[in-house]
Specification:
- The chain is about 60% helix and about 10% strand.
- The chain is built from 15 helices and 7 strands.
- Strands 4-5-3-6-7 form a 5-stranded mixed β-sheet. A two-stranded antiparallel sheet has the order 1-2.
- Helix 1 packs antiparallel against helix 3, helix 12 crosses helix 14 and helix 13 packs across helix 14.
- It is elongated.
- It starts with 5 loop residues before the first strand and ends in a 12-residue tail after the last helix.
- This is PucR family transcriptional regulator.
């Protein structure tokens, strides 16, 4: 067996073994003083678990110095187990590594104290052994911590998906692992495409990550979501409707694209119905080309009703059939209603003279018998245009220049 390493006339391993208990407590006090997160740990954990693993490390270092070798996989098992516990407790990995690095530095300072020039060879050998110990411990702790964190994340994701499934199936009592909120803001959203994204897959992942982060800031509890790059469903715990507009604005800013959303607030047992309704409202918003923003049923009552199946739908759509072969007339009538019966704005949007608008409107009235100046007939025209859109009747081509 090799001669023991000596510094200042003392066998290094004997110094560490003989003072392991005192040094462990001293090191833990240093962790608390210099590593902020350790100050948040309970006293009983610091004085038992943390002190014990620190003492174990000291005795392991002493053994390695005595036998002049690197630690074995078996010897590192308690350190890996400790890293797993810290991961479960939510201790940041950087705090754990800081403790190991700080501990190794103070151990080295302790054994090197009083060393003389003639101890140089043994000091260099001890330094190499300490470096090998630090590298082995860092690798083992990081691997164990990361594996446990990934396992915890998978469990959390599974619990969230199970909760969403239970809520959407109308069986909130079947949820496990996540505490249900008293109410949820149920939000169906669509995200527009970003024109400057060159790498669609990577950009989409980043956008979804930003959106999830933005939504989570609106709740202290986990936000549940089913999202893909085009949009999806978001359930925000205990968020009142008054905050829904700010949430949609935050999503828009995070995504960097246009966002259309439909929302309702519902208790857990009402989430399934609210999710169906908000998706239907969002479909109406897109069908009628409403601008980006937040909507609820009250904002699209007429359009929503017109999209419900009924025998009247076909009859409404046929009111404007005489204009099917005259796309310029149908387009002009449509824009005229969209601009609030403003002939000048209609002319600007169609890039024609206002007199051309007047002529086309007179032709439309003559062919259909419906005059937009008459309030009763104006309602019929609006309903007929909506019915044609819902039934996917042929849309007029862009008007040709007069």
């Amino acid at each position: 067996m090799s001669e023991p390493l000596r510094l200042a006339g003392r066998a290094v391993h004997e110094v560490l073994d003989g003072q392991a208990v005192r040094l462990a407590r001293e090191l833990v006090r240093g962790f608390v003083a210099e590593i902020p997160f350790y100050r948040e740990l309970p006293d009983e954990e610091l004085t038992s678990d943390i002190v014990q693993i620190t003492e174990l490390n000291l005795r392991l270092v002493a053994r390695l110095l005595r036998e002049r070798r690197a630690p074995t996989t078996a010897e590192l098992a308690p350190l890996r187990a400790s890293a797993v516990r810290r991961a479960q407790e939510g201790v940041p990995l950087e705090a754990i590594l800081a403790a190991y690095q700080q501990g190794a530095g103070r151990i080295w300072d302790h054994v090197l104290a009083g060393a003389a020039p003639e101890d140089l060879a043994d000091a260099l050998a001890a330094g190499r052994l300490m470096l090998g110990y630090t590298e082995a411990v860092t690798a083992a702790v990081c691997a164990a911590y990361q594996h446990e964190r990934e396992s915890l994340v998978r469990q959390e994701q599974h619990a969230r998906h199970a909760t969403i499934s239970a809520l959407l199936s109308g069986e909130p009592q079947a949820t496990t692992g996540i505490r249900l909120a008293a109410r949820y803001l149920v939000l169906s959203v669509t995200l527009g495409a970003h024109p400057d994204e060159r790498s669609a897959t990577i950009a989409a992942r980043r956008r979804l990550h930003r959106v999830r982060e933005a939504t989570q800031r609106f709740s202290a509890e986990p936000v549940l979501s089913l999202l893909d790059p085009t949009g999806g469903l978001i359930l925000v715990p205990d968020l009142a409707w008054d905050s829904a507009g700010a949430l949609v604005a935050a999503i828009c800013e995070a995504a960097g694209v246009e966002v259309r959303a439909a929302g309702e607030v519902a208790p857990p047992e009402g989430v399934a119905a609210a999710a169906r309704l908000t998706q239907e409202v969002l479909d109406v918003v897109h069908l009628f080309h409403h601008p980006p923003g937040l909507y609820r049923l009250a904002d699209v009552l007429l359009e929503y009703q017109l999209t419900r199946p009924s025998q009247a739908m076909s009859g409404l759509a046929t009111l404007l059939d005489p204009l099917t072969d005259n796309p310029d007339l149908l387009r002009t009538l449509t824009v005229y209603l969209e601009t609030g019966l403003d002939r000048r704005r209609t002319a600007e949007r169609l890039h024609v003279h206002p007199n051309t608008v007047d002529y086309r409107l007179r032709r439309a009235v003559a062919l259909t018998g419906l005059d937009p100046v008459d309030p009763a007939q104006l309602q019929s025209i609006g309903a007929a245009l909506a019915a044609r859109r819902v039934m996917n009747r042929p849309r007029p081509a862009p008007p040709s220049s007069p």
